[in-house]
Design brief:
Elements lengths: L20 H8 L5 E2 L13 H9 L11 H11 L6 E4 L2 H12 L5 E6 L4 H8 L3 E6 L8 H7 L4 E7 L11 H10 L5 E5 L14 H5 L5 E6 L12 E4 L2 H10 L7 H11 L2 H24 L11 E4 L5 H10 L2 E2 L1 E3 L3 E5 L3 H14 L1
Parallel strand pairs: 1-10, 3-4, 3-5, 5-6, 6-7
Antiparallel strand pairs: 2-8, 7-8, 9-12, 11-12
Helix pairs in contact: 2-10, 3-10, 4-5, 4-9, 11-13, 12-13
The structure holds pyridoxal-5'-phosphate.
């Protein structure tokens, strides 16, 4: 057949979502699997979200507010930032894509640590940019010195994932400040803080507060994780107004849906409940880490809502063994397994299954 699409996409891996309980019901006949594969918070939508989305649904025949004015003003209020510095998108993954579109021409370089968020290579490749992957340290974190050395005149954008998905590792204030001081000022540095709300180490900086005034820094946040809106698709970024404006030019028109805008406004009004749920997750993170270490796995400390099991080439077999026992985890072939922190009961079940699977 005549080729209709780009040949280079054949070499590109598809984004692999966490498998769902419906997959296990269909394939293995397991009726109610526990899903610990996609870094969601297990406690349902925050209070007020369902009502707000239901209300928004009555206007489904109308386009949403493309300027996202009310929600951007809400972000400004909650986070003490200028609405002109805020852009929203269909999940922060879409914003990462728009940032690459806004910075890179074909052949330009996108730099990131690896292993990190699996969307980065896909986003770079689909934009026609070149990925430069700097290997993680032996402790599974970013090697900021090596990343600095890897910056070339072609580098337009650097993604720094803190805490890092999927390893849960984190960068502290001093090392991040030194990195930002040393990085060229004409390269955009994106601090991807999808898991910021789960950070408890006071030395891990809130990038909005610590670096939000730097013109070449963009902070990427999502409402998919701690704020419980993964299904509605809403992320946001903070950057210099010119950068935010350039991103808004690249955004697919109307891609922050009316339901997402309404749900986000309601969620952001339920901050105390969000924090209560995050505290539960954080308490369980410590227990799960210790439980897995007791089974002999060298789990690094995590500041996110998941933990990393560096199981190397046993990763896939471990994940399959867990699935056969009704717990869905997320393997990264040849590298490790990421397990999301669930409810205490879900974590208990996972620890039992992990023991059997190991
Ligand atoms: C590091 C990181 N950044 C961004 C995202 C994107 O999240 P969303 O598109 O749901 O906002 C994720 C989701 O897993 C992530 O782990």
């Amino acid at each position: 057949m005549t080729r209709l699409t780009r040949e280079d996409l054949e070499a590109l891996p598809n984004y692999v979502p966490g498998r769902s309980p419906a997959d296990l019901a269909r394939e293995l006949g397991i009726p109610e699997a526990i899903k610990l594969a996609s870094n969601e918070v297990p406690y349902g939508p925050l209070p007020g979200v369902v009502e707000a989305v239901t209300e928004a649904a009555t206007q489904s025949h109308r386009y949403p507010d493309m300027g996202v004015l009310e929600l951007r003003a809400k972000f400004a209020e909650v986070y003490g930032v200028d609405p002109a510095s805020v852009a929203t998108g269909c999940g922060s993954v879409a914003l990462a894509e728009h940032l690459v579109k806004a910075t890179c021409l074909p052949g330009d370089e996108v730099l990131y640590s690896w292993r990190s968020f699996e969307a980065y290579p896909i986003i770079a490749a689909t934009a026609g940019a070149t990925s430069v992957k700097v290997p993680n340290t032996p402790d599974h974190g970013h090697d900021l010195d090596a990343m600095l050395k890897a910056i070339t005149p072609k580098t337009r954008i650097v993604f720094v994932c803190n805490p890092n998905n999927p390893t849960g590792t984190f960068l502290r204030r001093a090392e991040l400040t030194a990195f930002l001081d040393a990085a060229p000022k004409d390269v955009l540095i994106v601090l991807d803080e999808a898991y910021r709300e789960f950070v408890t180490d006071p030395e891990v900086p809130d990038a909005l507060e610590a670096f939000g005034d730097r013109p070449n820094v963009v902070v990427l946040r999502t409402l998919s994780k701690a704020w419980g809106l993964a299904g509605l698709r809403i992320g946001w970024l903070h950057g210099a107004p010119e950068v935010a404006n350039a991103v808004r030019k690249c955004v697919t028109p109307f891609s922050t849906s009316a339901a997402a805008q309404a749900g986000a406004l309601a969620a952001l009004s339920a901050k105390d409940e969000m924090q209560r749920r995050v505290d539960l997750v954080v308490a369980e993170r410590g227990r799960v880490t210790e439980g897995l270490r007791a089974l002999g796995v060298d789990v690094p400390d995590s500041q996110a809502n998941f933990v990393w099991l560096p199981l190397g080439d046993k990763s896939l077999a471990f994940a399959q063994a867990c699935e056969q026992r009704g717990v869905i985890v997320r393997p990264f072939q040849g590298d490790g397994v990421r397990i999301t922190i669930g409810t205490p009961a879900e974590n208990d079940a996972m620890l039992k299954v992990a023991e059997a699977a190991l």
